[in-house]
């Protein structure tokens, strides 16, 4: 959503500077609204105040709060987000009218649009406002795409030794107003019953601040659900001993936990807060979801939870490099397939090379109910990285209850030289990619012009200039999270080796190993994650009560299915 700054000054307004300064003082110290003051006067002044001062006025008193929220719902929305008004004009009374649209408060929608505009501006300049780093030592062998470190929304959980820790990302204001990181809490050590690190088979983080732990110890084969904010365990339930790693298929909805067997013929649902079994039913389906433990995610369409998974049955045995799959969207209550979307992607020619998807990205823009599927071709560079990616974008149409294909684009990476083929991600909606630059070893942002094209091999094979990432508004030194490994023979050198980068909404997650080189031997010291936040420190999760929401709460930084 674009943020219209425009020319905020009327042609001639006498004493406007004086009035603005007066209102700034009111925003800070005065709790008494002026006598005979009306909304038109307030609106005129709000047009000339900084957003920060308007937010301060909202906290002064109820009268000021009402004035501010009325301005946000009407004149403020028209002034700052005119394209939002046009895009939603077909919905009737809604954005900018001062009335609730689709169950959302107009003032809250204004704040969401504002956060997105700030976030987009920071992505454009590559400037994060805060970076949080966490260390995970003694990583067990977990059946997950993020060994030892797990993220969802504003929360992060990681293992260290035989312990599980959780925290909230971002910063809070401490004593005296000084910003500091949120506290790290151990998740109920007395009840976790971990006898060895390998007892933790998998962890799912819920964006509301919950952690679901799959405990696979001999004496305690169960789920355990913790409140990350307090560290307390909420509930636990036993899992049949015959369930192995490939049969452990769990997807988290905003209010339900769903478990299904490996062919999706049985679907169980539990209350996410209490662990009570809500239903257990035969689905009548026989699917072959993708490998691993993350075999489906939960979206919400028109107030109903739907399971989104990929059926991998339709394989052409004569073609070893391509695999046809179907993206399946199933109603969790009726078990009817709402839609099947054919997909096609290429397998890596060798098992150890990068797996090429498909990757599913959901639009980060507010009220844009769209997702993109990224698939890769067979053309690779010397490191086994696919050179051409295809992006298919789908838009949800509520009247038909279906997704319709919106665009097809291609990402052409010929001419680029990346140091790492896994520390790489594409944002198809904000139109940039994150990768490790081969010349500096830094993680960089690559802009649109040399990346996106309407058809493959139409872009000049000239690399775009990478933009380094910074933390803080005044910093001139790029954030040094990634360094090239030392030269052969170097001793006593410590360096970082990234293994995954993920862009999700207002954050960039980088997972990497901290390594130490001594006498020609490279040792892995620990696993770390860095969360770079771009834009507002307000909660980054979408509205959990929205009737339609494509952002699943189960690991918002995990998008591969």
TrEMBL record:
Cross-referenced Pfam families: F-box
Family annotation (SUPFAM superfamilies): F-box domain, Quinoprotein alcohol dehydrogenase-like
Transmembrane segments: none
Domain annotation F-box: ranges: 40-70
InterPro entries to which the protein is assigned, alphabetical: F-box-like_dom_sf, F-box_dom, Quinoprotein_ADH-like_sf
Protein name, entry field: F-box domain-containing protein
């Amino acid at each position: 959503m674009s943020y219209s700054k425009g020319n905020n000054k009327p042609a001639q307004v006498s004493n406007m500077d004086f009035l603005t300064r007066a209102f700034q003082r009111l925003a800070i110290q005065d709790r008494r609204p002026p006598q005979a003051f009306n909304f038109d006067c307030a609106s005129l002044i709000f047009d000339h105040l900084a957003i920060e001062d308007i937010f301060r006025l909202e906290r002064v008193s109820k009268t000021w709060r009402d004035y501010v929220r009325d301005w946000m719902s009407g004149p403020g929305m028209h002034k700052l987000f005119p394209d939002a008004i046009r895009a939603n004009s077909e919905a009737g009374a809604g954005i900018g009218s001062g009335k609730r649209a689709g169950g959302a408060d107009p003032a809250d929608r204004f704040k969401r649009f504002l956060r997105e505009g700030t976030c987009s501006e920071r992505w454009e300049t590559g400037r994060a406002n805060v970076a949080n780093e966490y260390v995970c030592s003694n990583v067990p062998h977990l059946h997950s795409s993020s060994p030892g470190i797990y993220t969802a929304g504003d929360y992060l959980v990681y293992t260290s030794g035989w312990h599980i820790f959780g925290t909230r990302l971002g910063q809070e204001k401490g004593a005296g107003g000084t910003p500091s990181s949120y506290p790290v809490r151990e998740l109920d050590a007395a009840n976790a019953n971990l006898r060895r690190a390998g007892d933790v088979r998998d962890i799912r983080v819920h964006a509301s601040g919950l952690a679901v732990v799959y405990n696979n110890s001999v004496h305690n084969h169960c789920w355990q659900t913790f409140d990350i904010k307090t560290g307390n365990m909420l509930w636990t339930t036993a899992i049949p001993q015959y369930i192995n790693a490939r049969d452990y298929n769990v997807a988290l909805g905003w209010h339900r936990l769903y478990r299904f067997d490996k062919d999706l013929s049985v679907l169980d649902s539990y209350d996410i807060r209490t662990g009570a079994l809500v239903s257990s039913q035969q689905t009548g389906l026989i699917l072959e979801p993708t490998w691993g433990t993350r075999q489906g995610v939960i979206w919400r369409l028109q107030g109903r939870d739907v399971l989104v998974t990929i059926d991998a049955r339709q394989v052409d045995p004569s073609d070893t490099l391509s695999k046809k799959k179907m993206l399946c969207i199933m109603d969790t209550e009726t078990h009817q397939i709402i839609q099947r979307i054919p997909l096609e992607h290429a397998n890596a020619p060798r098992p150890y090379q990068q797996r090429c998807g498909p990757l599913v990205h959901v639009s980060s823009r507010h009220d844009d109910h769209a997702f993109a599927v990224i698939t890769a071709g067979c053309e690779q560079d010397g490191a086994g990285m696919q050179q051409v990616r295809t992006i298919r974008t789908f838009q949800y149409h509520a009247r038909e209850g279906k997704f319709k294909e919106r665009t097809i684009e291609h990402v052409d990476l010929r001419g680029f030289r990346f140091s790492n083929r896994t520390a790489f991600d594409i944002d198809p909606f904000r139109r940039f990619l994150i990768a490790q630059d081969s010349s500096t070893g830094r993680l960089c942002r690559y802009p649109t012009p040399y990346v996106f094209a309407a058809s493959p091999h139409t872009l000049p094979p000239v690399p775009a200039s990478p933009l380094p990432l910074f933390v803080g508004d005044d910093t001139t030194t790029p954030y040094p999270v990634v360094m090239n490994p030392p030269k052969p023979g170097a001793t006593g050198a410590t360096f970082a080796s990234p293994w995954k980068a993920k862009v999700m909404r207002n954050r960039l997650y980088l997972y990497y190993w901290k390594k130490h080189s001594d006498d020609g031997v490279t040792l892995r010291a620990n696993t770390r994650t860095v969360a770079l936040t771009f834009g507002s420190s307000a909660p980054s999760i979408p509205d959990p009560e929205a009737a339609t929401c494509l952002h699943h709460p189960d690991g918002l930084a995990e998008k591969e299915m």
